[in-house]
Amino acid sequence: MLQTPDVDDPRRNELAAAATEAIAKNEPSAFFNIPGLFPPALVEDAAWRNRLNRELKAIRNAAEPG
């Protein structure tokens, strides 16, 4: 799991676990399950979640060497 010693948030362990899962699966869906991280209306909006997944995958792919 990622280490987040500088994050002063009571959800830091959940955030680190979600980040680890997001990296492993190449999608941020784990972040949607953390209470209060995103507004409920956005979490329930499948189009928004899909767009966020696409954008984050594009950023990750652009950052990968080669």
UniProtKB/TrEMBL annotation:
Keywords: Oxidoreductase. Its EC number is 1.1.1.57. GO terms for molecular function: fructuronate reductase activity. It is an enzyme of class 1 (oxidoreductase). This is Fructuronate reductase. It comes from Rhizobium giardinii.
